[in-house]
């Protein structure tokens, strides 16, 4: 069967391209749709269907733009009720693609409309199943993202629906089926996803905690709901964009990909209360940046961090971008619904300085310098709690970047402190946010824990009880 997984690492997302006999189906497309059109043109084929496994929370799908540009029909699963024309499939409804058959299997649980698609080849052999966020490799979809969309819908109810969907709809299928999920490790749509992005259903039945044959529904719900952290603020906003519609990416690009002189940049910032977002490398940002700007570097988990830390997708944004990265930056912002880019600083920081405007910096030290001052230091760890529990600086205080907005009261206001993460990326984001809010009493530790481990700074490591004698 001709199926291609198109994986986008920065948001841990998998779309799928299936072609047979000149007809193409795209599953869960990203916002930028031209690559799918180009791929179909390469096969001299026409995109016939755009299948959506559910209303996504972690990205804005490209279904509307792709349908407008190709004439393809959008397909959602049972109970979906979007504000645009589409096919709402019935449970077990079949769609013909060339000589292939695609069967919609309604699997509520992650969301009410969640649907998997069973793929049968030209010989009548069931090849695989596209599972969306119902079943991942090593995990299943979290059941708390759709609960606010329907009255009296709780994560407990959705977890119960998911248990039934997995047991009654997925697990009875052939062990030979290949599982094609919507996400891999790094996505916030699950909590324990594998780095692998495909597997056989049979192996998942053996290794995935959620598919244990002897598990009761109550045990499943307890294990699934244990340890769930609050979803990022942009998730419900992306869901509504996917349901109600959104502006074309072409329009977003035309508006946002606009070079501004330093004076124009300053004027727009003052008139719109735009957030100045600097996407360069953290080493460049700490040396000099526009006062009040926020750092989230393109080379890291850019889009998810933007979504987690900037509360409103409608926030006006002005960009500081490495030369040649303008289109990439605007595209990656749009993937998570941030469509209100107003332009970028032409000539970057050098042009800003040459125009007579001031720059700021973040005090930053090497791991060895940090070690020399460790005894008298206050140390804040910006990593996730799980990282902090596994290994940490002995006197470290955990204030994770993910939830910095909720824990501002815990940040020292007067005493100087050091902040670090795992490698130096997140700590600069953390420090830039605090500096923009008037905190100037922090010192960034370069290279984070990776560098600190090479010093004499005392560390505390988690020891599994089973290894204790």
Question: How do the helices and strands line up, and which of them pair or pack?
Answer:
Elements: E1 3-8, E2 13-20, E3 23-27, H1 34-42, E4 46-51, H2 63-70, E5 73-76, E6 87-88, E7 94-97, E8 100-106, E9 115-120, E10 126-132, H3 155-170, E11 178-181, E12 199-200, H4 201-207, H5 217-225, H6 234-244, H7 249-256, E13 259-260, H8 262-272, E14 275-278, H9 282-287, E15 294-295, H10 302-309, E16 317-320, H11 326-335, E17 341-345, H12 348-354, E18 364-365, H13 367-372, E19 379-381, H14 385-390, E20 391-393, E21 396-398, E22 417-420, H15 425-436, E23 442-445, H16 448-452, E24 459-461
Parallel strand pairs: 3-4, 4-5, 5-6, 10-11, 13-17, 14-15, 14-16, 16-17, 18-23, 19-21, 19-22, 22-23
Antiparallel strand pairs: 1-2, 2-3, 7-8, 8-9, 9-10, 11-12, 20-24
Quick structural summary:
This protein is an alpha/beta fold and 469 residues long. The chain is 30% helix and 21% strand. The chain is globular.
The largest sheet, given as strand count, sense and whether it forms a barrel, is: 6 strands, mixed
**Structure summary, number of beta strands:** 24
Mean pLDDT: 95
Strand order of the largest sheet: 1-2-3-4-5-6
CATH architecture of the largest domain: 4-Layer Sandwich
Rounded radius of gyration (Å): 24 Å
Strand-residue proportion: 15-25%
Roughly how much helix do the residues carry, as a percent range? 25-40%
Class of the largest domain, according to the CATH hierarchy?
Alpha Beta
Q: Spans with pLDDT under 50 lasting ≥5 residues? A: 465-469
Distance between the termini: 53 Å
**Assembly context of the chains:** single chain
Q: Kindly report the name of the CATH homologous superfamily of the largest domain.
A: Ribonuclease Z/Hydroxyacylglutathione hydrolase-like
- Compute the number of structural domains: 3
Structural category: alpha/beta
CATH level-3 fold name of the largest domain: Metallo-beta-lactamase, Chain A
Task: Please tell me what the overall shape is.
Answer: globular
């Amino acid at each position: 069967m001709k199926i291609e997984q198109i994986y986008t690492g920065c948001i841990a997302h998998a779309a799928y391209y299936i072609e047979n006999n000149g007809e193409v189906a795209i599953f869960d497309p990203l916002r930028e749709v031209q690559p799918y059109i180009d791929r179909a043109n390469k096969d001299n084929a026409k995109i016939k269907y755009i299948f959506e496994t559910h209303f996504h929370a972690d990205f804005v799908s490209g279904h509307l733009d792709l349908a407008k540009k190709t004439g393809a029909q959008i397909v959602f699963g049972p109970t979906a009720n979007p504000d645009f024309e589409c096919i709402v499939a019935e449970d077990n409804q079949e769609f013909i693609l060339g000589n292939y058959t695609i069967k919609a299997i309604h699997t509520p649980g992650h969301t009410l409309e969640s649907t998997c698609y069973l793929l049968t080849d030209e010989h009548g052999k069931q090849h695989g199943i596209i599972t969306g966020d119902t079943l991942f490799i090593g995990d299943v979809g979290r059941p708390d993202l759709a609960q606010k969309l329907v009255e009296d819908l709780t994560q407990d109810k959705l977890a119960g629906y998911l248990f039934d969907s997995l047991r009654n709809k997925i697990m009875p299928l052939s062990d030979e089926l290949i599982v094609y999920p919507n996400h891999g490790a790094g996505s916030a749509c699950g909590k324990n996803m594998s780095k692998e992005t495909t597997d056989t259903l049979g192996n998942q039945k053996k290794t995935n905690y959620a598919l244990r044959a002897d598990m009761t529904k109550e045990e499943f719900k307890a294990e699934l709901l244990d340890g769930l952290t609050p979803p990022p603020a942009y998730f419900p906003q992306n869901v509504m964009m996917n349901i109600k519609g959104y502006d074309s990416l072409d329009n977003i690009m035309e508006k946002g990909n606009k070079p501004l002189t330093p004076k124009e940049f300053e004027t727009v910032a003052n008139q719109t209360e735009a957030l100045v977002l600097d996407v360069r490398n953290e080493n460049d940002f700490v040396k000099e940046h526009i006062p009040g700007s926020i750092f989230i570097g393109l080379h890291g988990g850019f889009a998810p961090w933007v979504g987690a830390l900037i509360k409103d997708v409608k926030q006006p944004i002005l960009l500081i971008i490495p030369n040649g990265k303008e289109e990439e930056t605007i595209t990656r912002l749009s993937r998570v619904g941030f469509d209100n880019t107003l332009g970028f600083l032409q000539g970057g920081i050098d042009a800003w300085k040459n125009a007579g405007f001031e720059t700021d910096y973040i005090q930053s030290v090497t791991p060895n310098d940090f070690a020399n001052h460790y005894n008298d230091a206050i140390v804040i760890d910006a990593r996730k709690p799980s990282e902090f529990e596994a290994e940490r600086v002995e006197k470290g205080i955990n204030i994770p970047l993910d939830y910095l907005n909720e824990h501002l009261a815990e940040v020292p206001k007067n005493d100087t402190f050091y902040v670090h993460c795992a490698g130096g990326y997140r700590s600069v984001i953390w420090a830039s946010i605090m500096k923009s809010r008037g905190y100037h009493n922090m010192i960034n530790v370069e290279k984070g824990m990776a560098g600190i481990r090479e010093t004499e700074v005392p560390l505390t490591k988690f020891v599994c009880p089973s290894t204790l004698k």
